[in-house]
Each structure stands twice: as C-alpha cells, then as structure tokens.
Amino acid sequence: MNISKFLAATALSGVIATAPAYAQDVQQEETFDDNVIIVTASKRETTLQETPISVSVTTGETLENAQIRDVLDLQSVTPSLRVSQLQTSSASTFIIRGFGNGDNNFGIEPSVGVFIDGVFRSRSAAALSDLPNVQRIEVLNGPQSTLFGKNASAGVISVVTREPQFEFGGAVEAVYGNYNNVVVKGDITGPLTDNIAFSVDGSYNRRDGYADIVNLNEEQNNRNRWAARGQLLFEPTPDLKIRAIGDYSRIDEICCQVTTVVAGPTAGAIQLLGGQFSTDRFGYDAYLNQVPINKVDNYGGSIQVDYDAGPLSFTSISSYRELKNLFVSDIDYSSLDIANETRNQKVKTLTQEFRVTSDFDGPVNFLLGGYYFDESISQISQIENGTQIRDFFELLAGGNPADVIAGNPSVFNGVEAGLGLQQETIFLTPLLTAEQFSMDNTSYSIFGTVDFEPVDGLVFTGGFNYTDDKKDFALAQQSFDPLGQINLVDAFIVGATAGAVTTRDQFQALPAPNQAALLAAATDPTVNPLLGLAAFQFQPPFLTIPNAVEDGKTRDDKFTYLLRASYRVSEEVNVYGSYATGFKASSVNLSRDSRPSSADFVAGPGGSTFAAPSSPVLDAGLALPNLSSGSRFAGPENATVYEVGVKGQWEGFGFNLALFDQTIKGFQSLAFTGTGFALQNAGQQSVKGIEFDSTINPTDGLVFTFAMTYLDPLFDSFTGSVLGDLTGATPAGIPEFAISTSATYSHEFGGSGNKLITRIDYSHESNTPINNGLPTYNAALGNTQIFSREVNLVNGSMTLKLENGFEVGGYVRNLLNDQFLTTVFDGVAQAGTVSGYPSAPRTYGAVVRYKF
Q1: Is 408 exposed, middle or buried (0-12, 13-18, 19+ CB in 10 A)?
Q2: What average pLDDT does this structure show over 15-41?
Q3: Residues near 384 by Cβ (< 8 Å), separated by ≥ 6?
Q4: pLDDT grade, residue 337 (50/70/90)?
Q5: Overall pTM > 0.85
Q6: Would you say 119 and 321 are in contact if contact means Cβ atoms under 8 Å apart?
Q7: Helices 389-396 and 411-419 sit at what angle, rounded to 10 degrees?
Q8: Is the Protein biosynthesis keyword given for this protein (predicted)?
C-alpha cells in the first residue's frame, strides 16, 4: 500500500460521516495519480468517486485558475455552502445545507467546523488568511460525528495543503488587479537530507478599498494581509512519517461597508446635527466618525505522526494555536459622533488527536480514536459615548432643536433634576459600558467505526462518538450611564409615595390594593411621564457571573452514532443509504446581552424590582435595577440525517445524486435586536433536500460540471424567537435552489507541452428572504417588508501554461457586476432604520506564475 496515500486517506476519514461523495471541478488533466483523492471510509484505498461519503472537492488547480484565495469565495463553486462576511474582517458565517452560526460572539461554538491540515480552527477569524500551496478544499455536508473528534452538527470545511517533497521545486506568483490589488506568493520545497524535507511558503495581499468613507477621505473594504508558513517532513524509516507545521498570518484592514437600506425616523435628527449617512443600498460611499480598525494575528503549530505497523496504522496530531482579534468600529454608521465599539479578544487552543486504523484482509476493519480540546477565551470590550450622543438623544426625546443646537439645557437636564442625578451626566460619561469576559472550554471524545463486508461490494458500517464537554465562564460589566441605573416604574412609585417606599420589601408590605393601584399608575404612560425614557436605557446594570445563583458552568455529554450500507451494483454504479446523528455542545453568550434565565429571575411589570415575583436571583439579594431575563447560554444542538444516494461513473460522464432529510433539535440562534444579541435555542429546525452534481467530458480537453442543491427548510418548532412564534415558518436566508456550473477547455499546442486553459463558471442562488424579519423594524410592521436576495455570479479565467514552467493569465470575478445585499440588520439605537451589507463589485486582474 502507498503509505502517503493511505495517511492522507486516514486524515480525511477522520472527518467524514455519511452519504454520497461528489467531486466538484475535478478536471480531466487532474486525473493522474498525484491528484486522485484517496479515502478509506471502508478501510481500503478507494477513489472519491467510489466511496460513500458526503464531500465536494475543489482542487488546487481550480483555486489557482479562479483566483479563489480563501473560504469566502469558495461558495461560488460549492452550492451547499454559503459564506458571508459581517461587520469586521474577522467575522464570517459558514452555512451548510442552511445550518450555521454567526461569528459575532466568541462564546458560540460553530456548527460548521473549519480544519486546516487536520487542525480545528475554532473561530472563523483563524481560518480566513490567504493560503498558498493548497492541494484541495473539501466541504463535508451534514453532521460529522463518528470518526471525527471535534463534532460539528452542520458540516465541515477541510483545507488540505501540500506536504514537503523530496524533490526540489516550488513556485512564485504575482497578481495585479483593479483597485490596485497586488498579490505576491510563493513556495519552495526540497530535501535537507535523504529522509528530511522542508517547505516554506508565504503570501502578501494588498488592495485599495472599493468603498470610500467620504467625510474622512479614507478607503474601506481594502485588503492588507500576509501569511507565512514553514514545514518539515521526517521519514526516518519507510513506516514512520512526522510532519511539523508552523505558521503566522496577520490581517490589518478597514472593514466593512454598511449602507442605509431604510432611513428611519431617527435619520432627521442625524441630519439636523450635521451628520450624514449612505443613502444607496448598493452603494460604496460611507460616512463615519471613526475609521474602522480590524487587526487579526493568528499563529500556531502542529505535529502529525503517522506510523504504519502492517495491518495497523497509528496517527497522532498535536496542535497549539493563538488568535488575537482587535476591532474598533463606528456602530451607528453615520458621520455623527454617537458611539463607537472596541473589542479586544484572545483565544488559545490546544488539541490532541490519536487514531488507530486497521487494514486487514478479512471482511472486518475498524478505526478507533480519541480527541482532546482545550481552549481559553478572553475579551475586553467597551462602548464609547460620542461627543454628539446626548444631543442626538435629546432630539429623539422631544428636545427643542434650537436649544439642542445652541447647547442650552433641555430634556435630559430636566430628567436629571427630577431624578436627583447630577447635572450634565446622562450620556456624558466617557464610556457607556466596559466589559470583561472569559471562558475555558475542555472537551474530549472517543470515536470509531467498524466496516463489515460479507460479500464483495456490500459494506455495512457502524460508527460511534462519545463527547464530554465542559465550559467555565465569567462575565462582568460596568454600566456608567446614570439613567440606565434607575427603573422608571420603581422611581415613579418612590415619588408617588413621597419616599415612603424605596425598597421592594417596603412595597411588598403594602396592602395588595395599594400595590395594585401604584403599579397600575406606574405602568400607565399617560400617568407616568418617565416611561418615555425607557428607550434610552440601552445598557442597564449587569449581573456578574458566577454568582450565588449561577455557577458559570455548562456540562454536556452525548453519544452519537452512524449506520450506513453501501453496495457496488456494478463497476460503474454505487448505491448507499445512511442514518447519522450529530451533536454540538452548549454555547455561551459572551456579551453584554447575557441575562439570567427566566428560571433564575423574572422582572416585574416594566422591569420593576419592587413588583418582581420571588426568584432565586431576587431572593439571594442579587437583583439590579432594570435586570431582565434572557439567555446566558444556549443548550446543545442534536442533529439527525437520513440520506440515500446513487452515483455512477462512465467514460466521459459521471454523476452523484443524494436525497436527505436533516434535523437539528435546539439549533442555536443568534439574532441582533438593534441594541444587542439574543442567543436562544430553536425547538427544531429541519431541511429536506437534493444534492446533484455531474461531470461531462465530451471530448479531450473539454470538461463541463453542473452541481445543484435544492433545500426545503422548516421551523418545526421555534416558539420563543425574538420575532415571536416562528413554528411552521420557512427559515429565511436559505435559497431554495443553489447552482454551480462551469466549463473548462484545455487546448494543447501540438506536442509542445504548452496549453491554454479557459474557464468560466456561474453560481446562482434563487430569490429568497434574507431573514424572517427584523426585531425592531418589522415588529411595528407585522413582519412585512422582508428584504430578499438573489445571487447570479459569473467568473472567468484564462491561463497559458508553458512547458518551461511559466504561466500567464487573467481572471475576472463577478463579471456582470451583480449587486445584492448579503444581509440586513436593525440600525443600532435607531428604531425604524435598516442597515445592510452590499455585495462586492467586479474584480479582475492579471497573473504571472513560474513553477520549478
């Protein structure tokens, strides 16, 4: 057995679970031995086409020709995958078959796991750097449970890079494109001794921004990133191989363009104070008071040891990584100086995986493994009050515009006097909030599979995974604005009783009719004028955790399994069917929006503490003014998938067809509410679908590919969403049809060895609502005016490859300059305003490459 192929196969088998395999963009010239993808799902060397796994593959040559540099662009050739970038360079969401979680909150474990050379990248910020020397990228659809140490309930993106070679070689590449895009990358590999090889690769990517911050004369959505990596490969004996990898990457960019999709009632106040904001939903002009800062440092190393002991092979992968993520952004997205957010995050991750794989001649083979994960997260963040925030809110509170502009006392001065607060303090503290969050996560799992082949071509597979996960977290916040410290219902009661009632005990001691009368008056806006100020209490006091009631811990464990049968009907046709379960542990709301659960605390009407019923938090004396219940964490996700399929391969034609029914109970939903994020479990979300792909090779040098995914999603149960009861609704943001198709023609110039490769590809997402509504904007409109998105992207490339190793070519992405909104959200503290992220414009460039 070829040991390098077997070890590559074993590494892949550690992240595969169920269903049919389909290869995306495997071109004719890529069918020689070095590019045949080997897997060992049945503990035998088989090609991808012969093996019953659910994986689409984009080859390194396709990545080169199409200028796909990171996973953000990968969705254009993989219809089951969606990737969207959010408000910073480091925040992206990966979605497979309609399931995925945002990366705005580092306490949320991703439903789609990203792996690079077998090492789990726990945050998308650690997976976005440009990767030179990629051999292939595999997208695995559905829950990856058995044979996979760190479980992912929706799927996996696995990036496989080339290992060092014992023959000297390498490549250098230079790209120049529009927006002054300059990309330089290269790699070199070769032997150091007879049994030690090395490789070094790196990349630098710089581009002007395609958006402009007009008032600050600064560009936005630029590129400024670099990456470097070194590898050593030791092969002291034919049976032992050790691969060591060390890498460092840095991003320092200005991101991301946000436009005003709907200008709400607050827009007039911004303009009255001299502020500006974007007015074209697809435009690239922005108006900010702060140039965004996005800095990401991502580094680490891994050691993989493979030992072949004949019928048994052993694999160990050890890794340690650190991630530093800093961003500063203007969160109101206008030139008015209202508020800015700073977030400084650090993540340290240690992983260890062991596997033993059999290669017996008999009908039974197995894989058994163990996985350990240890991660620590820390975050220091704050919201700064801008110099114009008080004037802005004065206008919204009904202040006289002339007085506000002139700087004369107005609404808030009266409020301060009425509530006994120091004059000129509301919204005039330097900080609105300061936060300190931390989390330690340790987990281990034991996993394995057994394959039984009673007759040639018929294989039964059973697999299991047991995961034990522990999270310990601590959150603290200081809220500095004095208005947020006062409950407006309780304050009215204090005033109405002339100070006779100042505590909950005093209120509860009143006769019941007196309590009811006071509470009725205090919650009636026609009687209690203070209630109008509730909209300005953005950041009330925060209940620090751990505390006497909440221990700041989650403890989860789960046994998941796989049952699969596959049968080779003939040399050309295979059929299979599988049932698999998946699991993802609890996620923690590491944000200022973390609130005790309703089991621990229930506020009274209007957030009153005086009228709050007895609860563990209140009885322990921990209740704070304006404390509300919400979500400290979301419970585990439990996935199941039924899948059947057929695939065939003939001369010049191959196809793969899969039908699946996938369900996630307790899907962890993170929704932005306009002033914060709500983390909660959906009762159950499901999707039925079809995946189809085909490759047609009608003549030498010409290859057509066509891949399509059809999805029919449903909220089977989601009673407690921020939009109300969504049970029975269709989850938004999931296109019914996603299509990726390409045509590639390789023209060889006689027997010279020179050839011209021309490629064009098209990706389409059918028109679909972006979301199920916005908690603030749509709440007043009965969830009408839902914004939609349709995607039609055409990309092309042409490359002349010469026999002497020189290559020259050109590329274009988004040839037709298709425009759409990737997502929309409620304007921050601007009720009625809707903001959105516009898609990227057309990009193009020229490439010069030399391989030696």
Answers
A1: exposed
A2: 36
A3: 339, 340, 341, 342, 430, 431, 432
A4: very high
A5: yes
A6: yes
A7: 90
A8: no
> What is the DSSP pairing of strand 702-717 with strand 684-699?
antiparallel
Instruction: Report H helices in 25-154.
Output: 60-65
Helix (H) or strand (E) holding 12: helix 3-13
- Checking DSSP bridges between strand 834-838 and strand 259-262, what pairing results, if any? antiparallel
CB atoms within 10 A of CB 816: 11
Residues 156-189 as b or e (16 or more Cβ within 10 Å = b): bbbbbbbbbeeeeebbebebebebebbbebbbbb
Residue 790 contacts residue 819 (beta carbons within 8 Å): no
Give every CB contact of residue 169 below 8 A, 6+ residues apart in sequence.
Answer: 188, 189, 190, 851, 852
CA–CA dist 121, 15 (Å, integer): 14
Show the CA angle centred on residue 56, arms to residues 54 and 60, nearest 5°: 145
Q: Give the separation between CA 103 and CA 91, rounded to whole angstroms.
A: 5
Distance of alpha carbon 840 from alpha carbon 822, whole angstroms:
10
Q: Phi then psi for 392, rounded to 5 degrees?
A: -60, -50
The residue to which tokens 């070199």 are assigned: 188
Query: 478 vs 79, 220, 320, 541, CA distance in Å?
Result: 45, 32, 33, 7
- Residues 3-481+543-595+630-851: name the CATH superfamily: TonB-dependent receptor, beta-barrel domain (2.40.170.20)
Predicted confidence (pLDDT) per residue in 503-520, tens digit: 999 999 999 999 999 999
Amino acid at 621: G
Write out the two tokens for 371: 């996985």
Tens-digit pLDDT profile for residues 570-591: 989 999 999 999 999 999 999 8
Give alpha helix (H) positions in 529-612.
none
Give how far Cα 206 sits from Cα of 125, 179, 203, 246, 568, Å.
Answer: 18, 9, 10, 23, 50
554 by DSSP, 3-state: which? strand
Q: What is the DSSP letter of 731?
A: P
> How far is it, in rounded angstroms, from Cα 786 to Cα 795?
29
CA 654 to chain centre: 33
Task: Round the average pLDDT of the chain to a whole number and report it.
Answer: 88
Query: Where are the chain's structural domains?
Result: 3-481+543-595+630-851
Cα–Cα distance list, 601 to 489, 490, 539, 609, 846 (Å) = 18, 17, 18, 10, 61
